[in-house]
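TASK: fixed-backbone design
INPUT:
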């Protein structure tokens, strides 16, 4: 087994780690003994495990000797009103250039030696700069490790003709940590599951299309208030996106960070296909393509096949000199994947089980006639009339092209059931509930409120003082901030009595020891509250409510937890802070 070897005796067993203090066999024996007590493994099994020595060679200095050049992509920002401050590091990447690519060059500078820049239009008040800097590989590696040690400067291009007046000057940025511990590199994955799901939860977006397959290292940064403001500046994020390969507002964890990208110097890529013989028996072909003037020596390939939620094939082979590995599955190939590794560099490339395109559905339609429609943009008598042209479509044919027989009914049944479970699980995660029982609805909502730890915000144009007491008193932590965004509609028909009822409810919270209770009345737009829908926000999560809480369940409606609550919370907070009136101030104004 790679990375595992038998030790010569129990007396001299130890974990041998480069630049790491070893741990004795007595520690290993003690740990294994505790595990054995839990899982009840036999003594014979334990004695075998005690003789396993784990080798963790992490010296990667030979990795970087394979490159001649590197590219540093440097994004910085400077406050418009603070020109004397050192620029702030927004993001940087160090990408080593494999030998298939030509020698890189640096971004041309302006007349005053200033790199391309733009001024954001958001709250950051920052001017954002970008510089692509070409260095020799040793210089780029030295710059990267200087950043890890706390010395952050504008990198100096190797070519003197590409240098500017600000090269070598200091930058400022948040503290960073090595991940993984230097000098080990890591292979980026799409998500945390072994066979990567469809949602990329933490990919490496800074990987350019010409760099893969690659391993990475990161200097991960702590949060910085100035950087967080840049992530809320759409213009700055849009301008940087094609230059650093991603939108920084979608990856706020990369603000102030530096990433190192080391394209594999040996492998250009891995492709999988299948072929059939005269009897239509299928064979999986995996082709490991070497870079120019390179070979595939020292590589091993693990191929696996998934069939209806189970791994049916898992085979490992040394990659031959031609780079072609042929696997013979037992039946028609459903979905295949691979892991390509090297004895020194570790995992080089990986693909989760992916199905082949075997069937294509084709629907042909034609436009039959054009229909003109007229609509009004509102119900006002003088509303403008808009004219629309709609082209009607008629389906001519619906065909299915396939290179294989129709799947068995049992297979169709499996995929339909799997799709149904996926949809059901998505609904369960979203707390999707059809409400037609007032008692059931109140129990559910009060349970949510009772679990609040920091903040509860109710946005409901018809939320009354009685509702305030009936729902928010279910909080179990006295330090929770309670905020209610209601409207003037809740004060009818007797504003004085309604305001007094809300005040009495607030006082009941004060008597209980809950001091942070705030009620505000949103402004009207064309005589109506600016907010139509109802929302319950708890600790960063948002539930959409079809009915007002005062009438929940009286008419059938839906409750669902929003998958992306951040923009909704941002807008509700803005209404609460700037587009509404404090209850007390409103009462005074009303006399």
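OUTPUT:
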């Amino acid at each position: 087994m790679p990375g595992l070897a038998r030790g010569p005796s129990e007396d001299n067993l130890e974990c041998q780690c480069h630049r790491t203090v070893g741990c004795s066999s007595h520690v290993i024996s003690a740990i294994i003994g505790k595990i054995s007590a839990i899982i009840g493994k036999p003594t014979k099994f334990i004695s075998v495990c005690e003789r396993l020595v784990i080798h963790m060679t992490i010296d990667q200095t030979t990795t970087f000797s394979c490159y001649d050049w590197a590219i540093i992509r440097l994004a910085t920002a400077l406050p418009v009103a603070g020109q004397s401050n050192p620029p702030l590091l927004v993001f940087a990447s160090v990408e080593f250039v494999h030998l298939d690519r030509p020698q890189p060059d640096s971004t041309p500078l302006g007349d005053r030696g200033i790199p391309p820049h733009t001024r954001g239009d958001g709250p950051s008040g920052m001017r954002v700069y970008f510089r692509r800097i070409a260095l020799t590989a040793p210089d780029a590696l030295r710059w990267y490790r200087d950043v890890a040690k706390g010395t952050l400067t504008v990198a100096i291009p190797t070519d003197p003709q590409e240098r500017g007046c600000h090269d070598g000057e200091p930058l400022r940025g948040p503290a960073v940590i090595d991940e993984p511990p230097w000098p080990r590199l890591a292979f980026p994955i799409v998500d945390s599951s072994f066979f990567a799901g469809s949602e990329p939860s933490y990919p490496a977006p800074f990987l350019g299309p010409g760099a893969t397959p690659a391993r990475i290292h990161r200097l991960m940064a702590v949060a910085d208030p100035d950087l967080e403001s840049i992530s809320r500046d759409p213009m700055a994020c849009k301008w940087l996106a094609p230059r650093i390969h991603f939108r920084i507002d979608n990856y706020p964890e990369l603000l102030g960070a530096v990433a190192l990208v080391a394209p594999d110097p040996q492998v250009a890529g891995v492709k999988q296909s299948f072929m059939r013989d005269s009897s239509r028996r299928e064979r999986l072909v995996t082709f490991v393509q070497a870079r120019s003037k390179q070979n595939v020596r020292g590589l091993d390939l693990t191929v696996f096949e998934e069939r209806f939620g189970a791994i049916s094939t898992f085979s490992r082979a040394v990659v031959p000199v031609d780079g072609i590995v042929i696997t013979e599955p037992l039946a028609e190939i459903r979905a295949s994947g691979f892991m390509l590794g090297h004895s020194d560099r570790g995992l080089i490339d990986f693909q989760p089980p992916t199905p082949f395109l075997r069937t294509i559905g084709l629907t042909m339609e034609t436009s039959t006639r054009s229909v003109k429609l007229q609509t009004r943009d509102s119900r006002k008598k003088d509303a403008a009339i808009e004219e629309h042209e709609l082209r009607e479509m008629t389906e001519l044919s619906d065909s299915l092209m396939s290179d294989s027989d129709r799947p068995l009914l049992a297979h169709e049944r499996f995929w339909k059931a799997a799709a149904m479970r996926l949809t059901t699980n998505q609904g369960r995660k979203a707390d999707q509930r059809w409400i037609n029982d007032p008692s059931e609805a109140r129990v559910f909502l009060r349970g949510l409120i009772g679990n609040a730890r920091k903040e509860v915000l109710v946005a409901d144009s018809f939320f009354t003082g009685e509702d305030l007491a009936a729902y928010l008193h279910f909080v179990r932590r006295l330090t929770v901030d309670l905020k209610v965004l209601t409207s003037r509609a809740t004060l009818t028909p007797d504003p004085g009595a309604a305001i007094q009822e809300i005040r009495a409810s607030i006082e009941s919270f004060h008597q209980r020891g809950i001091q942070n209770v705030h009620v505000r009345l949103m402004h009207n737009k064309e005589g109506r509250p600016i907010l139509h829908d109802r929302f319950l926000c708890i600790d960063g999560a948002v539930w959409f409510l079809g009915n007002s809480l005062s009438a929940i369940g009286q008419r059938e409606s839906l409750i669902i937890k929003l998958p992306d609550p951040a923009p909704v919370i941002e807008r509700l907070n803005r209404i609460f802070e700037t587009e509404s009136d404090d209850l007390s101030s409103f009462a005074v104004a009303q006399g």
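COMMENT: The radius of gyration is 32 Å.
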